Amino acid sequence: MADEGLRPIIVKRIKKGGGGHHGGAWKIAYADFVTAMMAFFLLMWLLGSTAKGDLQGIAEYFKTPLKVAMSGGSGSGDSSSLVQGGGKDLTRKDGQVKKGDDPEMKKTYNLQAAHLKEAQQELERAELARLRSLKTRIEEAIEARPALRQFKSQLLIDITTDGLRIQIVDEQNRPMFALARAELQPYTKDILYEIGRALNDMPNRVSLSGHTDATPYANGEKGYSNWELSADRANASRRALLAGGMDESKVLRVVGLSSAVLFDKENPLNPINRRISIIVMNRKAEESALKDGSTIEVQAASQVKPDIGSTVAKPEPVK
After folding, report:
1. 99-111 pLDDT, tens per residue?
2. Exposed end of the chain (fewer CB within 10 Å): N or C?
């Protein structure tokens, strides 16, 4: 019995061979492989079923995505957003069409046109500032010379849609021209000399027009009439401006309008209707005048609102 307590205990350990469990890493690799193969076959299917025009649009989009999205064109789709919409028709060439009863207008962004418009507006603002500066200079020159200051009431200076307009009008006892003739009075020459020097500093072209009242010229219907008289007075004013220093190339038009455009419509015989109108044209009016067969609308002085900063008073009609 004592020998049984000393019997050794034997523990057998069994070592297992290969072929055991390797984990699940192979499943992840296999899934990636299957996904890649699906993506590859999907790409091949899309390339085979997409029209040539769509392929060009897709290629252009990935080259310059922002340009295609904003300017539109082949392959850009119907949406104006940077993210293009979808569509069922894969054979179309000129973008995608949205289904619906009312056709939706396609929005386009023309950056070049926007820059041109902004530049044009800036040029117009700068030109308007120059014309206002010229208006101030002429008014100051008249105020500085006592010989011209007394004729201030006969000078109407305002800014119209065609540019800066300077009108020299008659008064009852102080006409700008000799009676029924195109001969300038000495003080009229002094005024035109001063205006000619000021206009020569501006790059703008000039239009001259002569006006008369409604008093018919003697034998005007058969011979010399108010039409010839107004044209001759406008041309005499042109010569005076040139004598004052204005460059001859600045004159674009010299016309006689007779009594067709009256200053005082209620009183056609009012001396104020006898006047010379000098327009320093803005770029828009100049381009319109240079077009073949174009006409410029001539408005009566009473129909045009003066510039807000105008300080020259309109003379009262002579009774």
Report:
1. 555 555 555 556 6
2. N
Beta-carbon-side half-sphere exposure of residue 19 (alpha carbons within 13 Å): 3
- Please answer whether residues 190 and 168 qualify as being in contact, where contact means their C-beta atoms are separated by less than 8 angstroms: no
Amino acid residing at 7: R
Q: C-alpha distances in angstroms, 34 versus 17, 30, 44?
A: 33, 6, 15
| Angle made by CA atoms 57, 61, 62, in degrees to the nearest 5 | 125
Q: Give the integer Cα–Cα distance in Å for 104 and 250.
A: 51
pTM tops 0.85, yes or no: no
Residue type, 272: I
pLDDT digits (tens, 9 = 90+) for 163-202: 889 999 888 778 888 888 889 998 889 889 888 888 887 8
Pick the CATH number of 123-303 from 2.70.20.10, 1.10.3720.10, 3.30.1330.60, 3.40.640.10: 3.30.1330.60
- The C-alpha atoms of residue 223 and residue 229 are separated, in whole angstroms, by 11
Residue 35 structure tokens: 């996904």
Pairing mode of beta strands 275-281, 206-211: antiparallel
Tally Cβ neighbours within 10 Å of residue 291.
8
